[in-house]
Design brief:
Blueprint: E1 2-6, H1 8-14, E2 24-27, H2 37-48, E3 56-61, E4 67-68, E5 73-74, E6 94-99, H3 101-112, E7 114-115, E8 119-123, E9 139-142, E10 151-153, H4 154-158, H5 164-172, H6 180-198, E11 203-209, H7 219-230, H8 238-248, H9 253-264, H10 273-283, H11 292-296, H12 298-306, H13 308-325, H14 341-349, H15 351-356, H16 360-370, H17 378-391, H18 396-405, H19 414-417, H20 427-434, E12 452-455, H21 459-462, E13 466-467, E14 477-478, H22 482-485, E15 491-494, H23 496-499, H24 509-512, H25 518-523, H26 538-555, E16 569-571, E17 580-582
Parallel strand pairs: 2-6, 3-11, 5-7
Antiparallel strand pairs: 1-11, 2-4, 3-6, 8-9, 8-10, 12-15, 13-14, 16-17
Length: 587
């Protein structure tokens, strides 16, 4: 294995460049670029501070491997669709980056392109001494119209052909008077840029050379090296590593997966590669738990490729059922996608039974509201799919029995109800049922128009309420802590328009509700007594609204009544109104 070194400004000219010994490219087993603007900026800060940025791992080959270009004009939406960046496989010389994509892609964006249309700028007066985990040299992606001295376009500095002295003097012309200390700092900073980005010791990379010795590293060897190089840290998730094994022997894997995810996510969901791979393992009776040896089995990889269309169809039909037969219309109303895996198993193996099974919607809503698939649900998924296999179909009572046998609850108790406040992963599903008469607001064509959970009494208002400090006697202690501000009884669902610019925002309830009719107040379960809308009546408002919410939940048969325990309530979608009915608990 050879070790090479290259200057940082030279390495970016090698990316996507056939004329530079074939150029550097990304193999199809690499995931999408995931670094944020802040992470990119921190990389450049680290370089100027002369921190080591680790060695790259490169595979030199002539094999017609599927590969893609590095992205110069990067946009976040490209993370969901890499297909436009793939090239046609050929047998020309090339170097594929096995480890180091995030660093190289960051350098390419900063020195040769842009991030969401904005280029990287350097604050030439930064450089104050800072702790190792703080930023010393400031970088930011800015629009040209908003960038002014002391911000300078960084690529202009790095690729300047002038000496640092001439560059600085020309840069500050027309800026106005500059203090001697500032001028000295600018010279030091520009000098540091030239030193770190022009040095031939800028970045090192190790080469696996299959051109000089074609038999030394086979494609299987390279995939194994890729996995071992990336599995020790957090650079790749396990799903990325497992996908690399699948994609190594299936040229169309990336396109097929991207196409499936695009279809699944077309209506407000955010399914991931992780979910798809876990589902594949489960569907083929390999267990839902991620284990690399499973994907090392050629039979499993071949089966996924051969049965891909059928598995994809099962996933899409289950999602169509969810959207068409429940009030789960988008990502926000589905706390865990894992609840779908047993249904996909059912649809794949027993399609007729899936289409005629009773209680699937009830299983979905009950399990989701109660958080039955939270934590580590792999064993639960396996037990549910085993039950489906035993019965040759779906049985609601047995499914509930399996869930309970795994120590997971299906009841939405009153105490759990009050845990579903602002930020809860289940609050949107609860609101989806609560506001079911207006559920069409959950399926806008533009995701940013989805309804939003908002505070009745704004956080900014409640934070200003102080209580007496028992130690000092001063009124300087927060009266309402985060849990009280975020509790369910202080939450409501607003459309994006209601909560956007010119909408509710930080408007207190006495102003927001003063011109609202009784129908609006009833929909949001707001106490009709306007005296309770005053800030000094917050505690009384919460108690009154809790009574209204609890009454509503009991009407929907989601929570037991005050007179005794309730048989578990579930949604009966066979009725036109979408009412709830009770079914007996599983034994």
């Amino acid at each position: 294995m050879k070790t090479q070194k290259q200057s940082l400004r030279k390495i970016v000219r090698v990316l996507n460049n056939h004329d530079e010994d074939g150029g550097f490219w990304l193999p199809h087993i690499q995931r999408a670029f995931v670094w944020s603007e802040e992470q990119i900026s921190r990389l450049f800060d680290s370089i100027l501070r002369e921190y080591p940025i680790s060695t790259l791992l490169i595979w030199k080959t002539k094999s017609p491997i599927r590969m893609r270009r590095f992205i110069d004009e990067f946009r976040p939406e490209y993370r969901q669709n890499l297909l436009p960046f793939f090239t046609t496989p050929d047998e020309s010389r090339k170097s594929l980056v096995l480890d180091g994509q995030q660093r190289l892609q960051s350098l390419f964006i900063g020195l040769s392109g842009s991030y969401a249309g904005r280029e990287l700028y350097f604050h030439v007066l930064s450089g104050d001494v800072a702790a190792p985990d703080d930023v010393r040299y400031r970088f930011q992606f800015l629009e040209k119209s908003k960038a002014a001295f002391p911000w300078v376009k960084f690529k202009d500095v790095v690729f300047s052909t002038k000496d640092p002295f001439t560059f600085v003097n020309e840069m500050v012309q027309g800026v106005g008077p500059i203090a001697d200390d500032d001028r000295a700092r600018i010279f030091r900073n520009i000098g540091q840029v030239f030193k770190t980005f022009h040095s031939d010791e800028g970045i090192g990379y190790q080469e696996l050379d299959s051109i000089e010795n074609p038999t030394l590293y086979t494609e299987d060897d390279v995939v194994e090296v890729f996995i071992r190089a990336n599995s020790g840290g957090t650079k790749l998730g396990k799903s990325d590593l497992l996908f690399s094994l699948l994609a190594a022997g299936w040229d169309g894997a990336t396109e097929e997966l991207e196409s499936l995810l695009e279809s699944l996510n077309a209506h407000g969901f955010e399914f991931t590669r992780d979910f798809v791979l876990k589902t594949c393992l489960s569907v083929f009776d390999q267990g839902a738990r991620y284990e690399v040896p499973k994907f090392r089995q050629p039979a499993i990889r071949s089966k996924i490729e051969e049965q891909w269309d059928q598995v994809s169809a099962a996933m899409q039909e289950v999602l169509d059922f969810v959207r068409g037969s429940t009030f789960i219309k988008c990502d926000k109303a589905l706390p865990s996608y894992n609840v779908l895996i047993p249904l996909i198993y059912l649809r794949y193996h027993y399609p007729k039974q899936f289409r005629t099974a009773k209680g699937i919607d009830q299983y979905l809503i009950r399990a989701s509201l109660a958080g039955a698939f939270s934590g580590q649900p792999d064993q639960l998924i396996d037990q549910l799919t085993a039950n489906i296999k035993k019965n040759g179909g779906f049985n609601l009572q047995e499914a509930f029995g399996v869930i309970r046998s795994e120590g997971r609850s299906l009841e939405l108790t009153e105490s759990r109800l009050w845990q579903l406040g602002y930020g809860s992963d289940t609050v949107h599903l609860l609101f989806n049922l609560w506001y079911r008469d207006v559920d069409s607001t959950y399926t806008p064509s533009y995701p940013n128009n989805l309804p939003q959970v908002d505070h009745v009494f704004p956080q900014s208002v409640l934070r200003k309420v102080k209580a007496k400090n028992p130690s000092t006697g001063r009124m300087d202690v927060l009266r309402y802590r985060e849990g009280e501000r975020n509790q369910l009884a202080n939450c409501m669902l607003l459309t994006a328009q209601e909560n956007g610019a010119g909408g509710k925002s930080d408007t207190p309830p006495d102003q927001w509700f003063k011109d609202k009719g009784s129908e609006y107040l009833a929909k949001h379960l707001i106490p009709q007594d306007s005296a309770l809308w005053q800030l000094d009546k917050f505690d009384e408002f919460i108690e009154a609204r809790k009574d209204l919410i609890l009454k509503k939940m009991r009407e929907l048969k989601l929570v037991a009544s005050a007179t005794g325990p309730l048989a578990p309530a579930v949604l009966d979608t066979s009725t036109p109104s979408g009412a709830f009915t009770s079914i007996p608990p599983a034994e």
